[in-house]
Amino acid sequence: MFIELPGISTQQAMVFEEGTKAAIAQLEANLKAPRLPPQTKVDETQYPRTHLLRKNEGWVPPAPEIVRAYFEHFQEHFKEFDTDKKLAQLLELSGNRRIRAFKNGEFTVPYEVWRSFLVMTGRVPQDAIKVLAFMG
Protein backbone atom coordinates (compact mmCIF):
# COMPACT_ATOMS: atom_id res chain seq x y z
CA MET A 1 0.00 0.00 0.00
CA PHE A 2 1.29 3.43 -0.95
CA ILE A 3 -0.11 6.67 0.43
CA GLU A 4 1.03 9.81 -1.30
CA LEU A 5 1.34 12.78 1.05
CA PRO A 6 1.74 16.39 0.04
CA GLY A 7 5.09 18.05 0.74
CA ILE A 8 5.82 19.74 4.07
CA SER A 9 5.20 23.26 2.74
CA THR A 10 1.81 22.18 1.36
CA GLN A 11 0.95 20.53 4.69
CA GLN A 12 1.97 23.70 6.55
CA ALA A 13 -0.22 25.80 4.25
CA MET A 14 -3.16 23.47 4.88
CA VAL A 15 -2.66 23.68 8.65
CA PHE A 16 -2.42 27.48 8.46
CA GLU A 17 -5.59 27.71 6.37
CA GLU A 18 -7.56 25.43 8.69
CA GLY A 19 -6.32 27.33 11.74
CA THR A 20 -7.35 30.62 10.16
CA LYS A 21 -10.82 29.27 9.33
CA ALA A 22 -11.21 28.06 12.92
CA ALA A 23 -10.13 31.47 14.24
CA ILE A 24 -12.64 33.25 12.00
CA ALA A 25 -15.40 30.92 13.19
CA GLN A 26 -14.46 31.66 16.81
CA LEU A 27 -14.44 35.42 16.20
CA GLU A 28 -17.89 35.21 14.64
CA ALA A 29 -19.15 33.09 17.56
CA ASN A 30 -17.68 35.65 19.98
CA LEU A 31 -20.05 38.27 18.56
CA LYS A 32 -22.97 36.14 19.79
CA ALA A 33 -21.78 35.89 23.40
CA PRO A 34 -24.42 36.83 25.97
CA ARG A 35 -24.63 40.42 27.22
CA LEU A 36 -24.34 40.68 31.00
CA PRO A 37 -24.92 43.67 33.27
CA PRO A 38 -21.84 45.74 34.14
CA GLN A 39 -20.07 45.36 37.45
CA THR A 40 -21.30 47.59 40.29
CA LYS A 41 -18.65 46.98 42.96
CA VAL A 42 -16.64 50.11 42.15
CA ASP A 43 -17.41 53.40 40.44
CA GLU A 44 -15.21 53.11 37.36
CA THR A 45 -15.53 56.83 36.62
CA GLN A 46 -13.19 57.40 39.59
CA TYR A 47 -10.37 55.57 37.79
CA PRO A 48 -8.52 56.24 34.54
CA ARG A 49 -9.44 53.98 31.64
CA THR A 50 -5.81 53.36 30.69
CA HIS A 51 -6.14 49.73 31.84
CA LEU A 52 -8.26 49.17 28.70
CA LEU A 53 -5.58 50.37 26.27
CA ARG A 54 -3.01 48.34 24.37
CA LYS A 55 0.64 48.57 25.42
CA ASN A 56 1.55 50.85 22.52
CA GLU A 57 -1.43 53.10 23.31
CA GLY A 58 -0.32 53.88 26.86
CA TRP A 59 -1.61 50.93 28.89
CA VAL A 60 -1.29 51.32 32.64
CA PRO A 61 -1.96 48.36 34.95
CA PRO A 62 -5.39 48.47 36.57
CA ALA A 63 -5.90 49.54 40.16
CA PRO A 64 -6.44 46.59 42.52
CA GLU A 65 -10.02 47.77 43.08
CA ILE A 66 -10.72 47.41 39.36
CA VAL A 67 -9.05 43.99 39.25
CA ARG A 68 -11.07 42.79 42.23
CA ALA A 69 -14.33 44.19 40.85
CA TYR A 70 -13.83 42.72 37.37
CA PHE A 71 -12.68 39.31 38.63
CA GLU A 72 -15.45 38.99 41.23
CA HIS A 73 -18.10 40.15 38.77
CA PHE A 74 -16.90 37.52 36.30
CA GLN A 75 -16.85 34.82 38.98
CA GLU A 76 -20.42 35.68 40.03
CA HIS A 77 -21.66 35.10 36.48
CA PHE A 78 -19.56 32.04 35.62
CA LYS A 79 -19.85 29.41 38.32
CA GLU A 80 -17.32 27.19 36.52
CA PHE A 81 -14.73 29.86 37.45
CA ASP A 82 -16.12 30.82 40.88
CA THR A 83 -12.89 30.15 42.76
CA ASP A 84 -9.56 31.89 42.40
CA LYS A 85 -7.98 28.54 41.51
CA LYS A 86 -10.39 28.03 38.61
CA LEU A 87 -9.90 31.60 37.43
CA ALA A 88 -6.12 31.14 37.60
CA GLN A 89 -6.42 28.02 35.44
CA LEU A 90 -8.54 29.90 32.89
CA LEU A 91 -5.90 32.63 32.73
CA GLU A 92 -3.11 30.01 32.51
CA LEU A 93 -1.56 31.01 35.83
CA SER A 94 0.13 28.50 38.12
CA GLY A 95 -1.98 29.07 41.23
CA ASN A 96 -4.80 30.85 42.98
CA ARG A 97 -2.43 32.85 45.20
CA ARG A 98 -1.53 34.97 42.20
CA ILE A 99 -5.20 35.88 41.64
CA ARG A 100 -5.54 36.91 45.29
CA ALA A 101 -2.33 38.94 44.99
CA PHE A 102 -3.73 40.75 41.94
CA LYS A 103 -7.01 41.45 43.74
CA ASN A 104 -5.36 42.90 46.83
CA GLY A 105 -2.68 44.85 44.96
CA GLU A 106 0.26 42.80 46.20
CA PHE A 107 1.23 42.12 42.56
CA THR A 108 0.47 43.99 39.36
CA VAL A 109 -1.45 42.06 36.73
CA PRO A 110 0.84 41.46 33.73
CA TYR A 111 -0.37 43.02 30.50
CA GLU A 112 -0.83 39.72 28.66
CA VAL A 113 -2.93 38.18 31.45
CA TRP A 114 -5.06 41.32 31.82
CA ARG A 115 -5.53 41.71 28.07
CA SER A 116 -6.66 38.09 27.73
CA PHE A 117 -9.16 38.60 30.53
CA LEU A 118 -10.46 41.80 28.92
CA VAL A 119 -10.91 40.00 25.59
CA MET A 120 -12.67 37.06 27.29
CA THR A 121 -15.08 39.46 28.95
CA GLY A 122 -15.78 41.50 25.83
CA ARG A 123 -14.30 44.71 27.23
CA VAL A 124 -11.77 45.05 24.40
CA PRO A 125 -11.60 43.66 20.85
CA GLN A 126 -9.41 40.72 20.00
CA ASP A 127 -6.40 41.61 17.87
CA ALA A 128 -5.63 39.98 14.56
CA ILE A 129 -2.01 40.10 13.49
CA LYS A 130 -1.23 40.70 9.83
CA VAL A 131 0.86 37.99 8.11
CA LEU A 132 3.49 39.73 6.00
CA ALA A 133 4.77 36.62 4.24
CA PHE A 134 5.11 32.85 4.52
CA MET A 135 8.78 32.30 5.15
CA GLY A 136 9.67 28.66 5.06
Short description:
By secondary structure, the chain is mainly α.
Using brief descriptors, characterize the structure shown.
single chain, 136 residues, mainly alpha, 46% helix
Return the structural class: mainly alpha
Number of strands: 0
Largest sheet: none
**Residue-averaged pLDDT, rounded?**
95
Radius of gyration: 19 Å
- Count up the helices: 5
Task: Indicate the proportion of strand residues.
Answer: under 5%
Shape: elongated
Order of helices and strands: HHHHH
Cα-to-Cα separation, first versus last residue: 31 Å
Helix content: 40-55%
Poorly predicted regions: none
What does this structure look like?
It is a single chain. It is built from 5 helices and no strands. It is an all-alpha fold and 136 residues long. The chain has a domain at 44-120. The chain is elongated, with a radius of gyration of 19 Å. The model has no long low-confidence stretch (mean pLDDT 95).
Secondary structure elements and pairings:
Layout: H1 8-30, H2 64-77, H3 84-90, H4 96-104, H5 111-120
Helix pairs in contact: 3-4
